[in-house]
């Protein structure tokens, strides 16, 4: 008897949408962090500190220069489009690997030009953490909210070029929840992941086989440290505890309960004999491995602690310091007292850091004025500033004591202009995003928009003008002089203005390309833009006219005074 085949439903087409974003910045180089610091790395040979955080930028600092009271800033590593969550140094300090909420892992040259060598797009969601092992060959692991762990051969990553860009990876299976912490031992025999499952999962990275699950925490596991041999590990959790585990015995062999809140950062000395821990309670404790019940309170930070890096420096490298990454934009270095006498978990042993790398305020609040062009913002220091989205620049600082509400009231216009862009501040600065659905909505009298040289009845389109401005230096942009065009007369934007092109679906937003107003003129970037820019942008920028069939969906609904009830219909206007 012939079996009847069940008819399969047609495959669902995933609708993809391309958006254009740009950042408004005061200066070409942002020498200070804005917002949280998420991760740190230190190169002892060069005495360079690397820091990464919520402003999407990695910065490199010369600590020797700072000790001589000079500016420690060396360079920005800028290519990510969202928070940078973790970084690791490898290849003898010549390469840096970074993980970001923009779903990518990037490889950087940090010895010469500070350039991004390659971008790995294997992850499908925010990449939260990295792990590194030196032996038997250098390996980096990445993990995040997509519940996936990938293993990368560092030697392969550092040889990737534009023509030789094929990279293979191994993956570890079995994780059921988002991963927030990851660690590998120096010998590369174990890799350990912590997640919202509240379980530590252990694999052998050489075979990708799962070894064991370690249970005991009651909340998310945010930090892991493992000894060189891979026989013991530490875990810090949102349940406020630090647990010591025997991987061979597959059980918890000790616990530290010195913190009053979540533990987010763990660091040990090279002998795996001393624990340094920090977290949401802002306190950093030192606990000897031989006596987990006694902890020293070393110092108290101003903000919750995300990462700790232990550094041996000074003469004969006898002096130990802890660098702390916190919810602040500044980075502090704290001297660690050598003595272990008189355990005290209430009085800090160190009152002040001996070095601070200052940060900058981040924008926390904003409002778009009803001219749909100016934006008023308030930063973390309480400063108010006025910005022009159409010129991508700051107009002025507003007087102390002024509120956002005051500025809105003082700048009310009688004419109504529809919204044509959206604003984000998650990276500490204003990020303006243009979307096909509304970018061409704002038609304004040229005189009202400040174009006094245009006829009195002329109109301009804000979205179209801004697109022409962003890609003014792109070699393929329209070069004609159509004086009557609503797209003519656009402003020249600051050349350092970063431009980000993203592609979004219903459940994922990913960066396609990042450039700047200046770099759009380069041979490599201009060719890439030709491939990634959507039609609705190309028609404006290349041809100086608006896309056809601009669809505006809306609903018609009867006024409440009407007695008959009509079925609500959806219409689309072309």
From TrEMBL:
GO terms for biological process: double-strand break repair via homologous recombination. Keywords: Repeat, WD repeat. SMART domains: WD40 (SM00320). The keyword Repeat applies. WD repeats lie at residues 30-63, 77-111, 120-162, 172-213, 214-255. One of its GO terms (molecular function) is ubiquitin binding. InterPro entries: WD40/YVTN_repeat-like_dom_sf, WD40_PAC1, WD40_repeat_CS, WD40_repeat_dom_sf, WD40_rpt, WDR48, WDR48/Bun107. PROSITE patterns: WD_REPEATS_1, WD_REPEATS_2, WD_REPEATS_REGION. Belongs to the WD repeat WDR48 family. PANTHER family: WD REPEAT-CONTAINING PROTEIN 48. This is WD repeat-containing protein 48 homolog. It comes from Meloidogyne incognita (Southern root-knot nematode worm).
């Amino acid at each position: 008897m012939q079996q009847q085949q069940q008819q399969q439903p047609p495959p669902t087409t995933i609708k993809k949408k391309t958006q254009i974003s740009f950042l408004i910045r005061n200066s070409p180089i942002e020498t200070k962090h804005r917002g949280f610091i998420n991760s740190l790395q230190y190169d002892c040979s060069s005495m360079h500190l690397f820091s990464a955080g919520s402003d999407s930028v990695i910065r490199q600092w010369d600590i020797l220069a700072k000790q001589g009271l000079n500016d420690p800033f060396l360079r920005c590593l800028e290519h990510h489009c969202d928070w940078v969550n973790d970084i690791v140094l490898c290849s003898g300090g010549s390469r840096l690997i970074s993980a970001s909420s923009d779903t990518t892992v990037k490889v950087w040259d940090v010895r010469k030009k500070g350039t991004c060598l390659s971008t790995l797009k294997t992850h499908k969601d925010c990449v939260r953490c990295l792990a590194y092992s030196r032996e038997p060959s250098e390996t980096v692991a990445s993990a995040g909210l997509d519940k996936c762990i990938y293993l990368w051969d560092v030697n392969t990553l550092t040889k990737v070029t534009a023509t030789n860009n094929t990279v293979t990876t191994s993956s570890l299976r079995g994780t059921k929840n988002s991963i927030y912490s990851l660690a590998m031992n120096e010998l590369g025999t174990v890799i350990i992941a912590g997640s919202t499952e509240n379980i530590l999962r252990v694999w052998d990275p050489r075979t990708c086989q799962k070894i064991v699950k370690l249970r005991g925490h009651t909340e998310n596991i945010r930090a892991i440290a493992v000894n060189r041999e891979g026989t013991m590990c530490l875990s810090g959790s949102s349940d406020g505890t630090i647990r010591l585990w025997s991987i061979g015995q597959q059980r918890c062999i000790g616990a530290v309960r010195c913190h009053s809140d979540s533990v987010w950062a763990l660091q040990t000395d090279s002998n795996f004999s001393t624990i340094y821990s920090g977290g949401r309670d802002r306190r950093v404790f030192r606990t000897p491995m031989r006596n987990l019940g006694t902890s020293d309170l070393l110092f108290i930070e101003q903000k919750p602690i995300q990462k700790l890096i232990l550094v041996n420096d000074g003469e004969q490298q006898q002096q130990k310091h802890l660098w702390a990454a916190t919810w602040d934009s500044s980075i502090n270095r704290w001297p660690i007292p050598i003595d272990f006498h008189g355990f005290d978990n209430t009085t800090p042993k160190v009152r002040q850091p001996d070095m601070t790398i200052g940060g900058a305020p981040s924008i926390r609040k904003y409002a778009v004025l009803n001219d749909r062009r100016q934006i008023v913002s308030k930063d973390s220091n309480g400063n108010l500033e006025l910005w022009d989205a159409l010129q991508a620049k700051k107009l002025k600082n507003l007087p102390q004591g002024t509120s956002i509400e005051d500025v809105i009231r003082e700048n009310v216009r009688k004419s109504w202009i529809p919204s044509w862009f959206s604003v984000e501040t998650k990276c500490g600065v204003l990020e303006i995003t243009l979307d096909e659905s509304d970018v061409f909505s704002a038609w304004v009298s040229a005189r009202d928009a400040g174009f006094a040289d245009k006829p009195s009845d002329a109109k301009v389109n804000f979205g179209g003008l801004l697109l022409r401005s962003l890609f003014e230096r792109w070699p393929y942009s329209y070069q004609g002089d159509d004086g009557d065009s609503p797209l003519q007369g656009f402003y020249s934007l600051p050349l350092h203005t970063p431009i980000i092109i993203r592609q979004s679906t219903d459940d994922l937003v990913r960066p396609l390309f990042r450039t700047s107003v200046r770099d759009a003129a380069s041979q490599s970037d201009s060719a890439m833009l030709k491939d990634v820019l959507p039609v609705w942008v190309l028609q404006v920028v290349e041809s100086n006219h608006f896309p056809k069939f601009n669809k505006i969906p809306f609903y018609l609904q009867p006024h409440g005074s009407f007695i008959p009830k009509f079925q609500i219909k959806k219409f689309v206007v072309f």
